[in-house]
Amino acid sequence: MEKFLPFLLLCLVIFLRKVNGQGDMITTTKFIKDGETIVSSDGTFELGFFSPGNTSTNRYVGIWYKKISVITPVWVANRLVPLTNKSGVLKVIQSDGVALQNVTNSTIWSTNSSRSVQNPVAQLLDTGNFVLRDANDTNPENFLWQSFDYPTDMLIANMKLGRDLVTGFERYLSSWKSSDDPAPGDYTYHCDPTGYPQDVMRKGADVIYRAGPWNGLRWSGAPNMVNNSITSFGLVMNNKEIYYKYELVNKSVVSALVVKPNGNTMRLIWIVKTQGWVNYHSADADDCDTYKLCGAYGTCNILSDPVCHCLDKFEAKHQDDWNRADWTSGCVRKIPLNCTGDGFIMYSGVKLPDTRTSWFNETMSLDECRAVCLRNCSCMGYTNLDIRNGGSGCLIWIEELIDIRQLSQSGQDIYIRMSASEIGSAGSSSKGDKSVILAVALPLLFALILLGLGVGLILYKRRRREDPVVTTRGRFSGHNNKNDNSNQSHHEDFELPLLDLLTLINATDNFSIANKIGEGGFGLVYKGVLEGGQEVAVKRLSETSNQGFHEFKNEVNCIAKLQHRNLVKLLGCCVQGEEKMLVYEYLQNKSLDIYIFGEIIIS
């Protein structure tokens, strides 16, 4: 009996396959009824009839993942016209292509291909693409129709999201109306090719979210959507089409991008162990992802309160609106542009502005890009098109800069057009200075440098004798607080050594747990060793701390002015990106908190 067991199992598999499915193909003589399915040859996808949600009894033709326990349709055929009973039949008809018919043989949905062939067949491919083709022609370029051209609410691997530039045909996602109704809902997700390509979410005709332009690695405003061990992302752009797609690096992983009925757009991954979907990444993650929340030249920082601020050198266009937390009117330059003599100031760490009113060139250098922008008075800013390999290409904005946000990681640089009188007071070096100004300023600058070197050398030798910690001095850039009515400059000099972030990373072994010596509401304290061998205590302000920039600045001002034999000495500080740190002398065998706050705090 045992020697016949494999044969019996094979017969059982063949029998079940005949009962439950008919291979991966439908022909003019082979069709499927409600209750029957076809399955892709590798067993990944299945096509058949289903009822959505928990309450609907309507019947739809769809495609779903075969190997997971929860039916998750990745495509729906008759989403506008459901069947009300289980009498549906899906067949291939010579004139209509693939057609769904009801009990009276009336066609309620069809592919309605404009071309016809002698022997049409419909096949479910291993990619999940349901195609109509000639039985003897498997060339994708000759497909008569394919489901990948008509996505519903889900983007799966190798699907295209974008536009055919020759025909104008666009592939985009549209949400379901509800979990029980796959009819098109209020939200659509597009790869918008207007200007320079970017992913956008629309509610009706209005843009409500923007992922930012493609920078060669990812969308500018989606720093987490980078190539990884699961997926690789890419933008294809040529004379015929522009589209975004992703591929699965690990073929055993099931992952898809879905637009939910409420507009949430998320990348889902199926977890085999828990037999459920998990949200790997959400597009619209926080308030700062709301399109143009802070208006033109406003920037959104989710760690700030309020979240909206004007860019440095800008002020609220309508202050009364801003006082009411209505930031949509945006900001204007404090000093208007003059075109002649204008220059540029670099702003770092941002999600790039809306590119629908932009111009780009893939071969220009950054200097050439600046020159083009400078010659055009309507050009408001520029940057590199591609950030890979040191940067290349040119991206130019022709109108106001809208929908900027500050990113805590992987933000980009942008050069914004400013009046000549603002260039000299910019916190960072600008390429917009006029040569005539340089011709006058350079001789004076050279003399000042010689004088400064002499004075600096004297001070340097004196400091080396007094203190082994040698650092450079710098500036703090204050936040542009629109609730502050003073005209005080936002760039204040501090007589306090500034240490760069890399120095403190090396000193603390990348802020390792082994070097942690304390913590509190402000964050963590680490022991570190500077290059000269001096031991220090580094107080690192947490991103979730309630201490903002001004409180931090006040602490630095107060402690720097205090000198007492019983008070631990403040050696320096670090302000770089979102990082704010204080560097104290390290006191052996004692907690820094005890020396600063006293024993009563510990007890």
UniProtKB/TrEMBL annotation:
GO terms for molecular function: ATP binding; protein serine/threonine kinase activity. Residues 1-21 form the signal peptide. Keywords: ATP-binding, Disulfide bond, Glycoprotein, Kinase, Membrane, Nucleotide-binding, Phosphoprotein, Receptor, Serine/threonine-protein kinase, Signal, Transferase, Transmembrane, Transmembrane helix. The chain crosses the membrane at residues 436-460. PROSITE patterns: BULB_LECTIN, PAN, PROTEIN_KINASE_ATP, PROTEIN_KINASE_DOM. ATP binds at K539. Its EC number is 2.7.11.1. Residues 511-603 form the Protein kinase domain. It catalyses: L-threonyl-[protein] + ATP = O-phospho-L-threonyl-[protein] + ADP + H(+); L-seryl-[protein] + ATP = O-phospho-L-seryl-[protein] + ADP + H(+). Residues 23-145 form the Bulb-type lectin domain. It comes from the Eukaryota. Residues 339-420 form the Apple domain. Residues 471-490 are annotated as: Disordered. Gene3D superfamilies: Bulb-type lectin domain, Hepatocyte Growth Factor, Phosphorylase Kinase, domain 1. Residues 478-488 have a biased composition (Polar residues). PANTHER family: BULB-TYPE LECTIN DOMAIN-CONTAINING PROTEIN, RECEPTOR-LIKE SERINE_THREONINE-PROTEIN KINASE. This is non-specific serine/threonine protein kinase. It comes from Solanum stoloniferum.
